[in-house]
């Protein structure tokens, strides 16, 4: 394949622009704000789950508290009624009187037990409500941090996108100055060799694989017409001759 030295030199400009596009794409994929936003979003989701669990616990405990308080009221009402009967003096039968006193005592013990249950349930409700309040506050802080991180992420991404659009425009302009067949070869090699298709030959070394060419290889390149496309024998990338190629009189052609 043949191409004017000037067109070959433009491949280096094209390669520089493609390398810049690769760098920008890598930056866009690895913005620290992206990972941070994802982490914060996961934490918000986790808090939401914990909140649902805590709020469900509060509802359950409140229901238990209402049931325990209702039981206490029932026992207290019955105990008050029996006490009034006892104090009324209407009961004269000794056995009946003894049974009533025994029932009042039993109701007193039952009331004490139920009141203890109420206290325990109230303490549990207080703990759960405190947990709900803590999680709610943490969620508000995390959501605020997430919103701020997303804003920074979007700003950074927009900046990268603006830079990318500029580079894409410059690339299109440079690509127009490269012959179609050479451009097709360049794009094919770029897909094959990690995005690097063209490299400068400087001081006898390939800029693609960074290996020094042998004297025989340099002499072969020196003997090759300036409009002939040269490939590196090691990495097979296009070698673009420069003023610092180390080819002597052919440098700069």
Automatic annotation (TrEMBL):
Q: Which Gene3D superfamilies match?
A: 1.10.287.1490
Q: Name one Pfam family in it.
A: Zn_ribbon_9
Q: Where is the composition biased (Basic and acidic residues)?
A: 60-85
Q: Where is this region: Disordered?
A: 55-85
Top-level taxon in the UniProt lineage: Bacteria
Q: Where is the C4-type zinc ribbon domain?
A: 205-239
What InterPro entries is this protein classified in?
Answer: CT398_CC_hairpin, Oxidative_Scav/Glycosyltrans, Zf-RING_7
Domain CT398-like coiled coil hairpin residue range list: 14-193
Protein known as: C4-type zinc ribbon domain-containing protein
Protein's organism: Nocardiopsis sinuspersici
């Amino acid at each position: 394949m043949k191409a004017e030295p000037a067109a070959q030199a433009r491949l280096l400009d094209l390669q520089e622009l493609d390398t810049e596009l690769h760098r920008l794409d890598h930056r866009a994929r690895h913005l620290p704000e992206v990972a941070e936003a994802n982490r914060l979003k996961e934490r918000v989701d986790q808090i939401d789950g914990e909140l649902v669990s805590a709020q469900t616990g509060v509802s359950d405990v409140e229901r238990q508290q209402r049931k325990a308080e209702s039981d206490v009221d029932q026992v207290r009402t019955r105990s008050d009624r029996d006490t009034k009967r006892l104090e009324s003096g209407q009961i004269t039968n000794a056995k009946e009187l003894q049974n009533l006193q025994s029932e009042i005592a039993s109701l007193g013990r039952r009331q004490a037990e139920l009141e203890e249950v109420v206290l325990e349930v109230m303490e549990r409700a207080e703990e759960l409500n405190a947990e709900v309040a803590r999680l709610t506050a943490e969620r508000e802080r995390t959501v605020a941090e997430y919103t701020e991180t997303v804003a920074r992420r979007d700003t950074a991404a927009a900046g990268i996108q603006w830079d990318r659009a500029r580079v894409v425009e410059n690339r299109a302009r440079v690509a127009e100055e490269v012959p179609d067949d050479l451009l097709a070869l360049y794009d094919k090699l770029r897909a094959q060799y990690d995005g690097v298709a063209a490299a400068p030959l400087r001081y006898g070394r390939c800029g693609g694989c960074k290996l020094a060419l042998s004297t025989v290889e340099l002499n072969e390149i020196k003997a090759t017409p300036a409009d002939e496309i040269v490939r590196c024998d090691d990495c097979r990338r296009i070698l673009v001759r420069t003023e610092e190629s180390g080819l002597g009189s052919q440098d700069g052609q």
